[in-house]
Amino acid sequence: MEMTEGTPAALESLAKLVRYYILASTTEAGSGHPSSSLSAADLMVGLMFGGGFRFDVTRPGFSNNDRLIFSKGHASPLLYALWAAAGCISEEELMTMRKFGSPLEGHPAVALAFVEAATGSLGQGLSIGMGMALNARYLDKLPYRTYVLLGDSEMAEGSQWEAIQLAKEYRLDNLVGIIDVNRLGQRGETMYGHDLSAYEKRVAAFGWETILIDGHSMPEILGAFDRTQTLTGKPVMIIAKTIKGKGVSFIEDKNGWHGKVLKRDEFEKAVAELGDIDRSIRGEIPKPEDTAPQPAHPREAAEMIYPTDKPIATRRAYGNALARIFPQYPRIVALDGEVGNSTYAEIFGEHHPERFFEMYIAEQNMVGTALGLSRRGKIPFASTFAAFFTRAFDQIRMSRYSGANIKFVGSHAGVSIGEDGPSQMGLEDIAMFRTILGGVVLYPADAVSTERLVEEAARHEGIVYIRTTRKDTPILYSSTDSFVIGGSKVLRQSDKDHITIVAAGITLFEALAAYEDLKKEGVLIRVIDLYSIKPIDAATLKKAAWATMAIITVEDHFAEGGLGEAVQSALAEIPTPVHSMAVRRMPKSGKPDELLEYEGISRFAILQKVKELI
Amino acid sequence: MEMTEGTPAALESLAKLVRYYILASTTEAGSGHPSSSLSAADLMVGLMFGGGFRFDVTRPGFSNNDRLIFSKGHASPLLYALWAAAGCISEEELMTMRKFGSPLEGHPAVALAFVEAATGSLGQGLSIGMGMALNARYLDKLPYRTYVLLGDSEMAEGSQWEAIQLAKEYRLDNLVGIIDVNRLGQRGETMYGHDLSAYEKRVAAFGWETILIDGHSMPEILGAFDRTQTLTGKPVMIIAKTIKGKGVSFIEDKNGWHGKVLKRDEFEKAVAELGDIDRSIRGEIPKPEDTAPQPAHPREAAEMIYPTDKPIATRRAYGNALARIFPQYPRIVALDGEVGNSTYAEIFGEHHPERFFEMYIAEQNMVGTALGLSRRGKIPFASTFAAFFTRAFDQIRMSRYSGANIKFVGSHAGVSIGEDGPSQMGLEDIAMFRTILGGVVLYPADAVSTERLVEEAARHEGIVYIRTTRKDTPILYSSTDSFVIGGSKVLRQSDKDHITIVAAGITLFEALAAYEDLKKEGVLIRVIDLYSIKPIDAATLKKAAWATMAIITVEDHFAEGGLGEAVQSALAEIPTPVHSMAVRRMPKSGKPDELLEYEGISRFAILQKVKELI
């Protein structure tokens, strides 16, 4: 039997079926979150099968499908049940939930084509939805709408309020949030319990339209989604009073049932309570308008020009590069955390204002938005000070699980920024980005290599981090030199090298200066520009390790997880000793050179270390 | 001439002096943020010298002093100017600002006794203030008040709203925020410009009292601070309309003057505009009531009891330990991010409800609050899932610069949590905490070592991270075994060991199982429990490296920055090869054992690796 969309009887039957699937799949899995799924079941059935949601089930990736993100990722049994009720997941597949190898993971994973983004770390879905809504409104110019299911507990996350504030600023009336106010968090009542007005006041104060409903009344649910279609100029939040565990009397509104499944006998009892369940019915979702974004036609980028005698900061080269290469990579967009005149993202913004998004000082939402844009086919470059990406580590880590294609660009790396002091110094960023599975970490020393590596980053599918420097640095390379992800440059070498210095960015110039001083004393050393820290050019490093008596790494970053450990790891099976010079003392304000000296990563420190070893 | 407190003429003169100091110190330094300092000058002069602020300038650390935190840390020239005007910093010292070795750093640093916490990464001060206010209200029970100066730009940070929401929940009427609405951010206008009502609506919606004033009208400023003294039941936000650069006509309200200092000639012109400046005056601050918190008397803790045959999760041992040792460390408080029934912080909460703070799902504010408590002499233990500490990396990093004494406890480490999937798996936490300068990273394998290491953490002054495991694990140790920060345990060893396995936590049991299997085949290996990953027991590792042909590290964590790289770093100068076994494939849902196998960190994988090497 095929249901006609949206009749009350059909929706009632579908809601029952969805509840049945939630209970069956979680009991089969032996773990999961049935109670948190049941509270939102009516809301989501009303959304998906009530007629308002448009989705071509045969093309989950279709550009004009409405998007649905479960920010409360632990309600994944509901998500899977919905797509099963839509006929897109078989009952058999549903029963593989949480089992090894199943795309139906404990929390939504993009292995399942109907999942827009991996969620499960709370408070991230609204930012991702914002990225998708921004894309619809300002880039692809498509009528699709983005819906985000939110938990009440997760409204405590500040990231939610970053998204709420900025979605209003960008007038995203194509973005709809739904808060499932089921009163209970993991370990007890939430801050506001069932007080819907607490959410209403706060969300409305940020300029959103709010609609309060009983989340188990289908007419109210349908009425609310209906209203969201016509409201303009601002995003809408549906705030729904729900009962955790709704439909299973003995767990309804009860504490102690978070993340707990029914045992077999409890399951039988619960199913009996649900009454007749028609497992043959399937909900129909109307297709969206068959429209697609204007295809972008890549054109060749202009060539860069840097006079070889004029030092220039790599952060500025980043801005130049992005503006320059855009014609060749027309899927690029840029986002910046209110420091575009420091990161030089503003150069891109000046050239392509329609593709530059000011994200203000809210890094978590910037990264979530970038993920939403990436999932809609864009190539987002997101920039702020290297230090401030630590603010969004959770979003960065989660974006990896969504298969993100984001380029992060962190400026003001290291103690060499000088007087501003440690709060502004990126000293953990290499370590942080190195942990991203399959991620790329680039740290160019001069403008030419920066430009080339920005191009490589745009070409590369996946997460790339580019670390830039505040100070002007000399031009080292010519525009014919090539730079690749996973590469390095041997800048000084001979048959008589005693020691190899491996450096990148600012310390590369210290190493080159030390080379000159040592050469005057008749001591030759090898100098390698390790501009690609991950992946690492193990072959070149190993060759140097066998050819010289020791490796010295020098980095303007804390010792842990940085360039030094990357090299040690690459050479861990080779007997040549690797000595790490890195930031090990409490950083402070001072002149760049004073600080390099203080931390023992200056040309003099390198010179001394080499002499000590030979 | 000594000023009597609070007369209008005195305050006017002091405001002029403060402006003069701001300009003089920044022009002398050649960098800094005069315009952002000038906008808040009248507000802060009114606060500090208007009579409401109580502070014993001879005892900056005194427990009943009012606290003043500059969340907008870039207004440090104002902070220093205020303390200079209070007679606590000499003019000579003021002129050392931003110079190497000066306690007057580019952003406030705790090297200066009048700085309550290091700031400069925006949006963190209110959380820190919340910790200090919580301390006053619920722990030390002192009448001191906490004031936080906020920038308008930084209100975009979600962390602000986490603090705002929770300060209301804890009814902190001893907490006063002051938003310096100077309209201009770093690169242009803020989202709301001079629309004070935008801030008012939002802050009031979260239940705070709001007071709107002209931030350059001394009567309005004094009136506002007066009102904050009598309001009860909720925190207060003063929202002040100010002019960036106020007092220097040619930079007032002008874009392009953020973080820019006056040149010498501009400085002379600005000083002329200020009119007569009396550099001999000093502002008086009344002393607070000479009252101190009840001293806590440590009592000996009870002994732990774990039957050796009953496996128990280390996360549960954490909760047990904290409750048990509290009498001995009565400065302990516990905070948890709404997962106390998973981290088992709830055990402490049940025993000591008055010292347990539910922080809801808002990790950034939890860490900031912990810092505030730490700065007031408490020993905060803050817990959530290991994965979710990534949410607060910026706060963790900054807390180090405040000399924090915080213990972070992250549960649900690694792929071995199983079915919940990657969003819940802590796989970057060791790398993250290892970057903290001087920080300690502990990863106990069984309940006994966990209890001992929780004790060590409480005893240790500084940042400690303890990684706990979800699954029950067997008891390995007896209560007479000792565990120290920087230690390790050699669990299996002989004269004939071929290889050394270094593991910690869950993988230690895999290593021990591999040992048994290999022994049956006549192959002996050494097994080391590296429960202290930082600092690391280099001596024991080196001994093993010289005694065996290879080291194999095994960890339930990504390869980068984890246990393996810590060991490689410790052995980087020793020729013995170090092989790292770690999480290198995209994690997913599954049974713990399936996932250990999939990632190649199981007993079988170890067995195979050993055989491959010998």
Question: Could you give the topology of this structure?
Answer:
The structure is a homodimer of 614-residue chains.
Chain A: H1 8-29, H2 34-38, H3 41-49, E1 67-70, H4 76-85, H5 91-94, H6 125-139, E2 146-151, H7 158-169, E3 175-181, H8 196-205, E4 209-214, H9 218-230, E5 236-241, H10 264-274, E6 312-313, H11 314-325, E7 332-336, H12 340-343, H13 345-351, E8 356-358, H14 363-375, E9 379-385, H15 393-401, E10 407-411, H16 429-434, E11 440-442, H17 447-459, E12 464-467, E13 472-473, E14 489-492, E15 499-503, H18 506-520, E16 525-529, E17 532-534, H19 538-547, E18 550-558, H20 563-570, E19 578-583, H21 592-598, H22 603-613
Write up this protein:
The structure is a homodimer of 614-residue chains. Chain A has 614 residues and is α/β, with parallel strands linked by helices. Helix content of chain A is 37%, strand content 15%. In chain A, strands 8-7-9-10-12-11-17 form a seven-stranded mixed sheet, with helices on both faces. In chain A, strands 1-2-3-5-4 form a five-stranded parallel sheet, with helices on both faces. A five-stranded mixed sheet of chain A has the order 14-16-15-18-19, sandwiched between helices. In chain A, strand 9, helix 15 (393-401) and strand 10 (407-411) form a beta-alpha-beta unit. In chain A, helix 1 packs across helix 3 (41-49), helix 1 runs antiparallel to helix 10 and helix 18 crosses helix 22. The mean pLDDT of chain A is 97. At the A-B interface, helix 7, helix 8, helix 12, helix 15 and helix 16 of A face helix 7, helix 8, helix 12, helix 15 and helix 16 of B.
